[in-house]
TrEMBL record:
Name of the protein this chain belongs to: Uncharacterized protein
Organism: Obba rivulosa
Residue ranges with Polar residues bias: 267-288, 360-375
Transmembrane segments: 312-333
Residue stretches of biased makeup (Low complexity): 289-302, 381-392, 428-439
Positions of region (Disordered): 267-303, 356-397, 421-448, 470-490
């Protein structure tokens, strides 16, 4: 960011300028120059001249540079704050200093003794500069007694141009404002009279002496203070103190000028007027650098920036939401696809799991649940305890016949073992051996009304069918077993 500077001229008769040891109006008698300062009128200008060694002029200012214009036929001692330099005679401008830290400074110019018979120091004007950020152009607002923010206390008379005057020493006037600098403008000094201006700014009291000047001189800055908090509210109060032993002259204030930054609240809204640019509110005799764009331009660019940001963020947020939603849907579909093969495998496994074998019972089931009736054991007669236990087929218990079971109430493990032996015996015999040696004809074995051979055959078919499918695939033909007629079971 660049820096810009504002330069304004300060009249040599402003109360901000102090002449020591004293000032009188010029009477054309050169002898008075050896004793004090004289105020002389030269055309449209007022000059302050002295020939008194060690006479001085003091200026308090806020800024980063100051130029002192005048003329001298003697050497000068120039002090800024605490630094002192010697200025040779004849320099024009008389003295100039730049690059100061932007704050309140004090300039003191003192005339030195010389061998010249007629040494003179003439003060014409001062130029003061201060810098500001080019990104924050300055604005200024003028307030008069007609504005509500200007409050008068005591007896005052308001003119048509907004200036206000009083002849009462107890009268005062105040202004509440927001800004970083304030100036009070008006006519200063009266013929053959003097006095002082009392200023209270944010509870800080100060006093400035009015130099005697001729009448009808242009108004100037009666007071100026910069470096204030640009966002804080400030209060300035002014009153006039007449010289001791003299009556109260007419004290007049033309206007107040407040300088503001764009970031500061617009204090002019209280007065109901728009702020002027710095060049528009320039004081007489001041010069300023061209102002940049006003506060309204910055406000407008800020509004456009927010609008453009919203137009960009809206579509981006919509695209992000759609992408997240699509990712969620894709994950759900992928998870379901992973679950479909596992479900199909489970269904296939359910198909090859053999049904639990039925248990034989001594009588056909009647009403009720078949499973509950089949699980009831058949009691064995006590008379058979003395005889060897035989199966229904007449074989002894433990014979190698795969169709042999111990009793109609044999446990499930024995039935499955018998079915397994049955399957193994049928697989071990080749088809040619089965055709050459047909199985002996045996009557169907019935236990409690159930064909035990048929039950075992069904169980064996299911076990062998499941194993066959696992080895050969689901599309392979099931294994062939001899029909009952081939085995002679019919």
């Amino acid at each position: 960011m660049g820096q810009e500077s504002v330069t304004y001229s300060l009249a040599n008769y402003s109360p901000l300028v102090t002449y020591l040891p004293s000032v009188v109006l010029g009477d054309g008698v050169s002898g008075s120059l050896q004793r004090e300062w004289q105020a002389r009128i030269s055309g449209d200008s007022i000059l302050y001249v002295t020939s008194l060694p060690l006479a001085s002029v003091i200026v308090e200012f806020y800024g980063s540079a100051i130029s002192f214009f005048g003329n001298s036929t003697c050497a000068l001692e120039v002090t800024v704050d605490t630094e002192t330099v010697r200025q040779d005679a004849g320099a024009d401008p008389t003295y100039q200093v730049q690059g100061l830290r932007q704050t309140t400074h004090t300039l003191n110019v003192t005339a030195l003794a010389t061998q010249n018979m007629n040494p003179e120091l003439t003060v014409e004007s001062f130029f003061i500069s201060y810098e500001f950020d080019s990104a924050q152009p300055l604005t200024s607002t003028n307030y008069t007694a007609k504005d509500n923010v200007v409050q008068s206390h005591g007896v005052w008379t308001t003119a048509s141009d907004g200036s206000i005057s009083t002849t009462s020493s107890s009268a005062s006037i105040s202004l509440t404002f927001v800004g970083f600098a304030v100036a009070v403008n008006g006519p200063v000094g009266w013929n053959q009279t003097s006095g002082s201006l009392s200023v209270e700014l944010d509870e800080v009291q100060s006093s400035y002496e009015f130099p005697p000047i001729p009448e009808d001189v242009p108004p100037t800055q009666m007071f100026y203070q910069g470096g204030l908090d640009p966002t804080g509210e400030h209060l300035i109060t002014l009153s006039y103190l007449p010289p001791a032993g003299q009556g109260m002259p007419l004290f007049t204030i033309d206007s107040f000028t407040v300088w503001q930054l764009p970031a500061s609240p617009n204090a002019s809204s209280q007065a109901g007027q728009a702020p002027a640019t710095l060049s528009g509110s320039a004081l007489p005799g001041t010069t300023q650098s061209p102002p940049s764009s006003g506060a309204s331009g910055i406000s407008g660019s800020s509004t456009r920036s927010h609008k453009e940001t919203a137009e960009i963020v809206g579509p981006v947020a919509s695209v992000v939401c759609l992408a997240v939603l699509g990712a969620i849907i894709w994950m759900c579909v992928r998870r379901r696809r992973r679950q479909w093969p596992s479900r199909a495998v489970e269904k296939e496994k359910d198909k090859i799991i053999p049904y639990p074998p039925l248990l034989a019972s001594t009588s056909a089931p009647s009403k009720g649940n078949l499973a509950s009736n089949a699980r009831q054991p058949t009691p064995v007669p006590s008379s058979s305890a003395s005889q060897p236990a035989t199966s229904t087929f007449g074989s002894a218990v433990g014979a190698p016949d795969p169709l042999t079971i111990a009793s109609p109430a044999a446990p499930l493990q024995q039935i499955e073992a018998a079915a397994t032996r049955y399957v193994a015996s049928h697989r071990s015999a080749s088809p040619s051996e089965q055709s050459q040696s047909p199985a002996p004809q045996q009557p169907p074995q019935v236990v409690g009304g159930l064909d035990v051979n048929r039950i075992i055959e069904i169980i064996a078919q299911r076990i062998d069918s499941a194993a066959h499918e696992l080895e050969m695939g689901r599309d392979a033909a099931p294994p062939r077993y001899p029909a009952p007629s081939e085995r002679g079971d019919v």
